[in-house]
Every structure is written in C-alpha cells, then in structure tokens.
Amino acid sequence: MKKAIRHSGRSNQRRVAMATLVGTTVEWYDYFIYAMAAGLVFSSAFFEPVGQELGLLIAFASVGISFLFRPLGAFLAGHYGDRIGRRAMLVLTLVVMGGATTAVGLLPTYHDAGIIAPIILLCLRILQGLSAGGEWGGAVLMAVEHAPKDRRGRAGAFPQLGAPLGLVMASAMMALMSGVIAPGDAFVEWGWRIPFLFSFVLIILGYIIRRAVDESPVFQEIAEHKQQSSVPVVELFRKHSRLVVIAALVFAACNAAGYMATGGFIQSYAVSNVGLDRTDVLNAVTYGAVIWAAATYLTAIASDRFGRIRVYQIGHVVLAVTIFPLFWLLNTGEISMFYVGLTFFALGLGGTYGAQAALYSEMFPASIRFSGVSISYALGSIVGGAFAPMIAAYLVQQTGTTTSVSFYLLALTAVSLVAVSLIRDRSGINLSINNEAEQAIGALVTDKRPIPATVKEAAVKERV
C-alpha cells in the first residue's frame, strides 16, 4: 500500500505560502527592475557609443543573456535540491539574486568607467540568471509538496503570484522615481539606481521569512529513507527527456507574451514610438500586473476543480485572441486604450501561468522532481522569453509595425497549446517517494503503458 505524504499543518502551510510568495516576489522584482531599466535607461547609460537603436537592441539582448544561464542555475539547484533539500536552495538563490541587483545600482556608467561598466553589468545579469534558474523550482515544490492533493493548484499559486507582484513593485518603484522623486533628466542620471538599491532591504526580509519554514515533507521522506538520486539530472534526461521538452514548450508562449511587458519592450515602444508619457506607461503596466496576479490566482484555484490541462487550454485560447488587440489599442496613442488592451492581455497571461506550479510538480517523479521542474522551466524561458523583447524590437525596426510582433507571439501560443494538450492531467496524484513507480509512467497522453507490479521493486533495486 502506498503511503500518503505527511502533510504539514495549516499554520505551517500558511507560513510556506507566505515564504514562497515573498521570496519569489523579491526575486522577480529584482529581475524586472533590470528589464525595465534596460528599456528606459541602459542603452544610453551603458551602451552609448553604438547609438540609440543598436544600443537598445544590445540592452534588450543583455536581458536575454541571463536566460542562457538559467539552465545552468536549474541544473545546479536541481541537483542539490534533490540531494540536500528544497529550502537551502531557496535561501541561496534569494541572496545571490538580491546581491547582484544591489550591485547594479552601484555601477558606474560607460561615461564614467568605459568598457568595464557594461562588462560588469553583463556579469551581474548572468548571476541573476543563475539565481532565477534555481529559484522557481524550489519555491513551487515547497508550496505544492506541503499542500493536500485537492489544494495543490491554490498552494502553487503563491509562488506564481511572485511574477506579477514583482512586476507591480518594479513598475511602481520606477513610476515613483520617474514621476515624483527624480523626474526628467534626474531619472536618467541617478533616479533609476534607487529601485536597484532597495533590493538590499527586500532580500533581508525574504531571507528571514524563508529561513523560518520547514523542509518539504516529500524531501523529508526521501532523506529519511535515503532515496536521493546520486545524479538526478542524468536520470532525468535518461528517462524523461521528451517530457522535459514538452513541459518547456508549454511555458514558451506565456513567457514570451509576459516579457513583452516585463522585459521592457512595451514600455520602450510606448514611450519612444507611440509618444506616451513614461510615467503613464509605467502606471499602466503596474495596473496590468495587478490583473495578471488576480487571473493567476483564480485560474490556479480553478485547476483544482476543473483540472490543470483544461484550464491551460482555455488560457492559451484567451491569450491568442488578445495578442493583436493589445497592440492595436496601444497604437491609438490613447493611454486609456492601452489600459483596456492590458486588461484582456493580462487575463490570458494568468490563464497560462496560474496552474503551472501544480502541473509541473505532478509530472515528474519525486526523487528528480526539483531537477525536472527547474530545468523544464529554464528551457521554456529560453525558447519563449529569453530574447523576446529584442526580437520584438528588431521586428518593429524591420517592418515598421507591431503586427509582426503579434504574429510571432501567436505562433508561440499555438506551439504551447499543442504541447499542453499532449500532457495527461494527473491532478491529485500521490507525490510521495513511495509512489514513484506510478509517477514515472504516463505523464504524456501518448504513453499508454500500464504500470507493472514489478516496476516499484525494480526502482527500489536500481537505487540500492
């Protein structure tokens, strides 16, 4: 008989929810502050010699470079997260991300230090990428593995909320500096640095909260029975490489669409091409992030009732039908129309993001779950969001219209919709290490194999 997971009490589940929410919000705040500054300031502050247009492309490319290092961060965090625990990796990634972000706020510009300034900037962005690659997997497993099976979607919503709430904080801070504290030239000269320096306060808060939570009950079982995989990443790709690829493609559309706003492209385009006020645009994006957060939470809850796959499919359809109207409304030059476009666009983002934590956690076996969810997420980030702002800026420069950007996003949405439809809905599956035989088979609809009675014994012998 398969033992159920020893779930923690409600009070500890609430602490875990708060820890994953605060931690991921801080991490994404750090990440988005860089992306926004890249679109608004960095082309002149760090890449001035190459000119405005090329400097903007390089600035957006520096946003994407971090994504190339996310898989390495995911490999490292996945390996140690599956071997020494989820909580330790959560604390480490938070400190690395916050330290790198704070350091960006202290950097001299190209005018002050020459070529060394953009080089150090890129190095710090790489550290952010390494940290982000390991952050998400640890946060979602802490949340989902602590939760009862009928509340995993709701529990997994809290680390997911970190992205839109991080965007709210980042946009609000940038708007505050741009419109109130350091308007005009002062924002370009020094105002953009304050949001980066503020990260130091946030990481102290996140560190205290994350240190206070218990380790995941699933990992406690794994450690108790000494069933850690010796090389989890190797085992993951040897047995589940196709699953990793499909899981990565599921995330591609949401990530690319989300990085239109969070990666700085919409802010830059709205200000430079459409002529909207910078502070008004930042306020609008802040509003859009609030809608995104609400949609993320509601769709995560819905996935507990209606299933992860159905909710995901509806979310992709909503995203597909809002891609073109977003840019049509933005191009009217009316800030009120931009708000309308962001409202519907954010609903699609939430529909393709809320259930992700629970979906990924239920796809992979317990002993390699951290590696599976982290690497799938990191690879999906590369396919979708890594260079999405740079690609969008290039498409606009070459075609003179945002229609090409909309078709680009629509194509990725179609790919993600097909990918999620290939996954079997396993809502409520026992996540315990004792049920690893069932977890290892049947995550894809194309896998029709029954679970032999000998699979469990074979798995045990393989570990011994």
Structure commentary:
Helices cover 78% and strands 0% of the residues. By secondary structure, the protein is an all-alpha fold. It has a single domain (10-463), classed as Up-down Bundle (Growth Hormone, Chain: A). The longest helix has 36 residues, at 10-45.
What does this entry show, briefly?
The chain is mostly helical and 464 residues long. It has helices at residues 10-45, 52-83, 86-106, 110-113, 116-146, 152-181, 185-191, 193-197, 199-211, 217-224, 232-262, 265-274, 278-306, 308-330, 335-351, 356-361, 369-384, 388-399, 403-421, 436-439, 454-463.
Short descriptors:
transmembrane transporter activity; 464 residues; membrane; 0% strand; globular; single chain; transmembrane; Growth Hormone, Chain: A; disordered C terminus; cell membrane; MFS_dom
> How many DSSP E strands?
0
Largest sheet: none
Question: What is the radius of gyration computed over CA atoms, rounded to a whole number of angstroms?
Answer: 21 Å
Secondary structural class = mainly alpha
| Overall pLDDT level | 84
The CATH topology turns out to be: Growth Hormone, Chain: A
- Point out poorly predicted stretches: 1-5, 458-464
SSE string, helices as H and strands as E = HHHHHHHHHHHHHHHHHHHHH
Write the layout of secondary structure elements.
Layout: H1 10-45, H2 52-83, H3 86-106, H4 110-113, H5 116-146, H6 152-181, H7 185-191, H8 193-197, H9 199-211, H10 217-224, H11 232-262, H12 265-274, H13 278-306, H14 308-330, H15 335-351, H16 356-361, H17 369-384, H18 388-399, H19 403-421, H20 436-439, H21 454-463
Helix pairs in contact: 1-2, 1-3, 1-5, 1-6, 1-9, 2-3, 2-5, 2-17, 2-18, 3-5, 3-9, 5-6, 5-17, 6-13, 11-17, 11-19, 13-14, 13-15, 14-15, 14-19, 18-19
Membrane topology: Multi-pass membrane protein
Subcellular location: Cell membrane
Transmembrane segments: 21-42, 54-77, 89-109, 115-144, 165-184, 190-209, 243-261, 281-299, 311-330, 336-360, 372-393, 405-423
